[in-house]
Specification:
Length: about 230
C-alpha cells in the first residue's frame, strides 16, 4: 500500500475505509435509536467494527490501523474504571440490567471505546498532517465534544445507556460528559504522534496514559461542569 506524507499505513484506501466505518456507526446508532433496538444492537455493531479493524490491519499489513487498535484497546480496558466512577461513585450513568457485565460496564464497552478512539485518532492523524499538532488538537477537541455526545443522545432511545437527570443536560447528554469527551479528544493527536514514531510497545504505554487521562477528564469535567 502507498504511503501518504511518510506515515506508513496512511493512504487513500485506509482513509476511505475508516471514514466509511464512522458513517456506518452513526447510521447504525441512529437506526437503533429510532427502532429502540436494545443492548444487543450495541454489541453487534461494536464487535463487528472491532473485528473489521483487526481484519483490515492484518490483511493489508497496515501498521497505522494496528497501532490505533492497540492504543484504543488498552485505553478502552482502562476506561472500565471511568465507567465505574460514573455508575457507582457519582451515580450518573445507567446501563440496562439485562446484559453481560464486567465490573460496572457492559462486556462490549472496552471495544466500543476502542472503535471510537480509533476513528477519532485517525482523524487526528489527518489533521496533524494538514494543520500541525496544535491546530489538530484544538479542532479534534471541538469535534470530539460534538461527535461522541451524539452517541450519548442516541443511546438513550436505543436502550444502550442513559444518565440520571440530576445533572445539567443538553438533550440526552450531560454537559460534563461533553466537556469530558472534548478533553479526551484533545489528547489524541499528540499521543498518536508519538506512537507513530516509536516501537509498537510504546503504543501500549500511550494507551495506558490515555486510559488514565479518560478517568482524569471525567473527574475534572464533573467537578467544573456539574
Amino acid at each position: 500500500m502507498n504511503k501518504q506524507n511518510n506515515i506508513p499505513g496512511l493512504d487513500k484506501q485506509t482513509t476511505r475505509s475508516i471514514l466509511a466505518s464512522s458513517g456506518v456507526l452513526i447510521l447504525w446508532s441512529l437506526g437503533a435509536s429510532i427502532f429502540e433496538a436494545g443492548p444487543v444492537s450495541a454489541s453487534i455493531i461494536t464487535y463487528g467494527l472491532y473485528l473489521f479493524y483487526w481484519f483490515y490491519a492484518l490483511k493489508f499489513k497496515n501498521p497505522l490501523v494496528l497501532r490505533l487498535i492497540v492504543f484504543g484497546t488498552v485505553a478502552g480496558i482502562l476506561e472500565l474504571a471511568t465507567d465505574h466512577y460514573l455508575v457507582s461513585t457519582i451515580d450518573s450513568l445507567v446501563y440496562p440490567g439485562n446484559e453481560l457485565m464486567v465490573w460496572s460496564s457492559p462486556m462490549y464497552m472496552p471495544f466500543a471505546w476502542s472503535n471510537v478512539l480509533l476513528q477519532l485518532s485517525f482523524v487526528g492523524v489527518l489533521l496533524t498532517q494538514k494543520k500541525g499538532l496544535l491546530i489538530a488538537s484544538i479542532i479534534l477537541c471541538i469535534a470530539g465534544g460534538m461527535y461522541i455526545p451524539l452517541y450519548e443522545h442516541l443511546a438513550k432511545d436505543a436502550g444502550w445507556w442513559w444518565y440520571h437527570q440530576n445533572v445539567t443536560m443538553i438533550f440526552n447528554a450531560p454537559v460534563y460528559v461533553i466537556v469530558c469527551e472534548a478533553l479526551i479528544s484533545l489528547s489524541l493527536p499528540i499521543l498518536i504522534y508519538y506512537s507513530e514514531r516509536n516501537k509498537l510497545q510504546r503504543t501500549v504505554y500511550l494507551g495506558i496514559i490515555e486510559g488514565i487521562w479518560i478517568l482524569a477528564s471525567a473527574y475534572i469535567a464533573f467537578t467544573i461542569a456539574n
